Amino acid sequence: MKQRIKSVAALLTGLPSRARGALQVLGQDPVAPQNLALLLDEWAKKDDGRTFLLFEGKTFTFGDLSRRVARRSATLATLGVRPRDAVALMMSNAPEFLVNAWAIARLGAVAALINTQVSGAALWHALREAKSKLVVAGREHLPAIQAATRDADGAPPIVWEETRATQGNEALLGAPELPLLDAEPQPIPRPAVTLGDDLYALVYTSGTTGLPKAGRITHARAFTAAYGFGRFTLGLGERDVVYVCLPLFHSSGFLIGAGGALLTGATLALSRKLSVSRFWDEVGDTGATAFVYIGEICRYLVNAAPHPREASHKLTRIVGNGMRPDVWKKFVDRFQPGLVHEFYAATEGNVNMTNLLGLEGSVGRMPPIPWLDNAFLARFDRDVGAPVRDASGRCVACKAGEVGELLGRIDATKVTMRFEGYLGEAATHAKILRDVKEPGDAYFRSGDLLKKDALGFYYFVDRVGDTFRWKGENVSTNEVADALAAHDGVEVAIVYGVAVPNTDGRAGMVALVLQEGGHFSPERFYEHAMKSLPSYAAPLFVRLPETASLTATFKLKKNDLADEGFDPNRVKDLLFIRDDRLRTYAPLDEPTFERIQSGDLRL
Question: Whole-prediction pTM value?
Answer without folding.
Answer: 0.82
